[in-house]
Design a protein that fits this description.
Length: 663
């Protein structure tokens, strides 16, 4: 990625989204800066964990980007000078040419980039034979490039070298002889005993996890209930003392192992959460006590309903390629919502008519649905209906396109799907491939939505989320043109643009609701209406309010979660519960226990956040490893029959939202 074009392809979107009001020259220099990750000369300017950037290159970046706005403030106002900017990114500033990174270093022969990438794959690959082959490939590639070998000669050299390497270096023949003459003995494994040991160890850790997370949750609730009227005059900057790490552009703390750290997402206004940040600093002792009381605890954290994360042990937040802290909002994580939300059966009806293409309304709808899907768990079931009605693309109806309301996923035309990670990715990809077209007759879409909810067998609350721009007129033709005979010939009168009477939608939904309650004897289906952008809210608000729901408006993509807060408040549990999430991890299995936390200030139960505790399952893995032989191995499955740990399956590197609910 060491050309302008390739850097743009690899990280351009990330760089472009960091700032607003950014000049082309600034973006070009930032893209060049990213190229240090694959420069063949990296050993000259990259020390372990730290980039040495040339002072003149730092000056060029700061000058070009001084007017760029980051988190509401221009870089020129946020930083005193170019050195201040580069040092805050975690870089070291160098002046000696050849020992620091600049724009000239970013460009190099693509051949060396390929070799460097091969070298990286050797360092981080796990397959020994593949790594060995790549080493040979690198050697012969260098040989071929330096001696200008033809493709045929290079291929012959590779084949000859591979044969001789296998024979003389790996000693394949002698190794096979050794195996043939070896004396083998039987290994007896007491599977029942190992199984019982593993079950006992796992049960002990699960019990500790439940006890730890409930202790912390109780401490947090007592803290908030005892300080209902707590206020602070401190600002965020004044709170940046030892013991706190904010993703500040001016402050860096390293290895804060005995204090808590705070992470604030980019979309949150910091001054509005100062009170809760200051108050939760008093949880440090409670975190420390739980950590010291258990050999299994690795990490403890509190995700606030206001959006910030406090964790223990503390440390500097992970940064991206060019030194900016990666964004993180705990409210969008699966561990947060399995603890706070109750099981739901949801059908999302999204307006797919032509008017949605205006003023980026379709992108706003997709972004909103993506946030909603992110916050669902495997306890929830979901499907999406795309709502539009037939129309003509041309005035003369030569290109008639018949589009009807349809269930978006071909995998579930007659029912709902569990909101697994795979299902959510599948639905988002389908939405992003969709191009709105047609009229705004939403009757068929609601018929499909009720049909999908009729098929469900669970007693969970049914919910329809209706996203629309509320516009009744679409810029397409909904009826064929008319031809009138005259003395001068046929007179062509084009068909009118699509205009629909939304009263018919209200009446149709009322009929569907009556049929539903009469047939199944269940409570009515609640409808939440979401108005997109600054358009007419009549349709989504009226249809939701007449069906025990409520309406809300999404006007921009910057703070969708905050704008959806009435929806999240409605779907929350209102009672605390402990949830254990499926173990995950690369080299070491981690078990996560979470519990929602509620304050009773003012006599009303109010969600204040979620407590989480991570536990190491290394001791369980040790028992599992003792069961491993040629004909035996240990594994763990959950109540759904899914493998949590299995030697023949690659471990899950990240947390997955598959909850376990203790009795």
């Amino acid at each position: 990625c060491c050309t302008f074009y390739e850097a743009e392809l690899v990280v351009g979107e990330t760089v472009n989204n960091l700032f607003t009001d950014t000049s082309v020259g600034c973006l070009d220099l930032l893209n060049l800066l990213v190229c240090y990750v694959c420069s063949p000369n990296q050993s000259n300017f990259y020390q372990p964990g730290q980039l040495v950037i040339c002072s003149d290159f730092c000056d060029r970046i700061f000058t070009a980007c001084s007017g760029a706005v980051w988190k509401g403030v221009t870089l020129a106002k946020r930083f005193d000078n170019s050195s201040h900017f580069c040092l805050s990114r975690g870089y070291t500033i160098g002046v000696r040419s050849g020992s620091c990174f600049n724009s000239a270093t970013a460009h190099n022969n693509n051949m060396w980039i390929v070799l460097f990438c091969l070298f990286i794959s050797v360092l981080f690959g796990s397959n020994f034979r593949l790594k060995l082959f790549i080493v040979v490939l690198i050697f012969l590639s260098i040989l071929g490039f330096t001696e200008s070998l033809s493709s045929a000669d290079w291929g012959n050299s590779l084949g000859s070298f591979t044969q001789s390497f296998s024979r003389d270096i790996l000693k394949v023949d002698s190794l096979q002889d050794t195996f043939n003459s070896a004396n083998f003995s039987h290994l007896y494994v007491n599977g029942s005993r190992l199984r019982d040991e593993m079950a006992e160890e796992l049960s002990h850790i699960y019990s500790e996890a439940i006890r730890a997370v409930e202790t912390l949750a109780n401490d947090t609730e007592q803290l908030f209930d005892a300080r209902c009227n707590y206020t602070t005059s401190s600002t965020i900057d004044e709170l940046q003392t030892d013991g706190l790490f904010y993703d500040s552009d001016t402050t860096t703390f390293s290895h804060l192992q005995d204090v808590t750290s705070v992470k604030i997402p980019d979309s949150v206004t910091r001054d509005l959460i100062t009170r809760d940040i200051a108050l939760t600093s008093e949880l440090t002792d409670a975190f420390r006590n739980v950590k010291n009381s258990s050999q299994y605890v690795t990490r403890l954290y509190f995700g606030s309903v206001e959006g910030f994360l406090r964790e223990y042990p503390g440390g500097e937040w992970e940064r991206d390629f060019i030194g900016f802290p990666k964004d993180y909002d705990p409210r969008l994580q699966s561990w947060y919502h399995v603890a706070t939300s109750r099981p739901k059966d949801i059908v999302i009806v999204v307006d797919c008519s032509s008017s949605m293409l205006e003023n980026d309304r379709w992108q706003l709808a997709v972004s909103t649905i993506e946030i909603i899907l992110q916050t669902l768990t495997q306890e929830d079931f979901i499907n999406i209906v795309c709502s539009s009605s037939s129309a003509y693309r041309n005035q003369d109806s030569s290109d008639a396109t018949y589009v009807d309301a349809r269930v978006l996923s071909p995998c579930a035309q007659d029912g709902l799907m569990p909101a697994t990670s795979g299902v959510k990715r599948h639905l988002i990809s389908l939405l992003k491939e969709e191009t709105p077209f047609g009229g705004s007759d939403h009757r068929d879409a609601f018929t499909l939505a009720f049909k999908l909810l009729w098929q469900r067998s669970r007693e969970c609350e049914p919910l329809i989320i209706f996203l629309t721009d509320g516009v009744a007129t679409d810029p397409v033709i909904c009826r064929a043109p008319t031809y009138f005979g005259t003395e001068e010939g046929a007179l062509f009168v084009p068909g009118p643009e699509c205009l629909f009477d939304f009263n018919q939608v209200f009446e149709h939904v009322n009929e569907l609701e009556a049929d539903y309650t009469a047939t199944f004897g269940r409570d009515e289906i609640k409808i939440i209406g979401i108005a997109l952008s600054e358009t007419d809210t009549t349709l989504p608000y009226n249809i939701s309010c007449s069906h025990s729901g409520f309406g809300l408006k999404i006007t921009n993509t910057h703070s969708i979660y905050t704008q959806l807060s009435p929806y999240f408040s409605y779907t929350s549990q209102n009672t605390s519960r402990t949830v254990l999430l499926n173990p995950y991890g690369d080299e070491e299995l981690i078990l996560t226990a979470v519990r929602s936390v509620y304050s009773q200030c003012g006599g009303t139960s109010r969600l204040i956040g979620v407590i989480g505790v991570d536990f190491s399952l290394a001791d369980v893995q040790l028992v599992l490893s003792r069961a491993r032989s040629e004909d035996s191995y240990g594994f763990i499955i959950n109540q759904f029959g899914e493998a949590l740990f299995h030697p023949r399956i690659d471990p899950v590197a990240r947390l997955v939202p598959n909850p376990i609910y203790p009795p």
